[in-house]
Amino acid sequence: MIAKTFQGLEEVLAKELTELGANNIAIGNRMVSFTGDKALMYKANFHLRTAIRVLKPFKHFRASSADEVYDICRKIAWEKFMSFSSSFAVDAVVNSVEFTHSKFVAYRVKDAIVDYFRDKEGERPNVCVANPDIIFHIHISNEDCSLSLDSSGESLHMRGYRQETMEAPLNEALAAGMILLTGWHGECDFIDPMCGSGTLPIEAALIARGMAPGLFRSRYAFEKWPDFDADLFEGIYNDDSGERPLQCRIYGYDKDAKAILTAKRNAKAAGLLDSIEFNVRDVKDFQTVTEKSVMVTNPPYGERLKEGDIPLLYETLGERLKHAFMGSEAWVICNHYEYFDKIGLKPSAKIPLYNGALACEFRKYEIFGGKYDKFRSDGEKLNKENSAERRGKTLRHKAAQAEKLQQKEDAEKPRRPFRKAEDGEKSRRPFRRTEDGEKPRTPRNGGKGRPADHRDGNRSRSFSRKSDNNRK
Ligand SMILES: C[S@@+](CC[C@H](N)C(=O)[O-])C[C@H]1O[C@@H](n2cnc3c(N)ncnc32)[C@H](O)[C@@H]1O
To answer: Residue 272: inside a domain, yes or no?
Structure first.
């Protein structure tokens, strides 16, 4: 199988796959390949935080033109994957001088499938872009073509908890990847002082509590496959053995009251309102932390958000880090070197990452307490240790810029509309398998719900996985 991700998150994804029990893991460009059984494919979709889709390749061939692709596809026994009554779509990613238009390749594969069924069954399946039953994916690199089934459907970054967004929200898979890159899993406090719609604190809470990012999704493409094993997936969905109580505090601040309201709505939809402390606060008022903390933040870059004085904001952030964040570490993502310079601290790591189409760096600042001499010598030591790694990554960053167009494709698929939680309604868990006449999901724990699990010991989570006929 192939799990696709964003440039710069491949190693984090490979680690996630190792922890899930995948075999033969190999890191590629914006993807990690692996082997495993059907259960692993379901788990990969449900548990991976940094994957945006999981593909199951079924045919590799060589071709040098779209017509040749058509001829080969025309001979595939498509009834193994779908029937003529299924709707389907074809996605194409092309990186080749022979094939210049990915859309044209996708059309030719669609033509081949339609013509195959028309000849064999006398009926043609529906091509459906918005909500197809089956999604095929063709990847062409030079003349090497791979056809896959897309087991995810909608990109996996669309967790399902997002009720509203502010401007420039982080992609959820990128946010999770940034947090995992810091090595944080909930061991100490977590702070995002410019949290916008709350993506980083929410992903942090999911990580710290060991909650699967797929809990809130209503649908995976593999559920429409002819070999879908509902009981197997139900077992995976209802297994909460990896979940744990929160052992730290998670804070989200923003100067914009509307952003904090949005963040709270999103956290409520994820059943995490009790796990995160959201407050309206300007960075300039950031107060001294008393516990060791990790800060991960995505300040405005001045690209999409037309904010006031952006250089001054970075300067203020640097000043607050120096004076109010001693003994802790901060990670900042931005695409302007001059804004990083305004922070006025030496980074101990620089990781190239893309935020959408923007080539960014994710920089780490370790704020040492104690004497300036020690601070300097530690900083220099860190600097030397990381310089070779950074040189390699900078080159990789430059090479990556040439490929950024491809990366946008997965992230920018249209979002499915979802129902908003009504006032007073407990956050919903929109998963359902109960279309009319289908077997309802077996509730975990004999339907008794789940134990109180907040660290103060008297709050229960605000969503449950009990089957609920209203969740349609
Ligand atoms: C790029 S957005 C963050 C988006 C967020 N990561 C998300 O996923 O929604 C930057 C945020 O910084 C906030 N901001 C800008 N200046 C600020 C300041 N001085 N203090 C606190 N927040 C600030 C903006 O209101 C905005 O919500």
So the answer is: yes
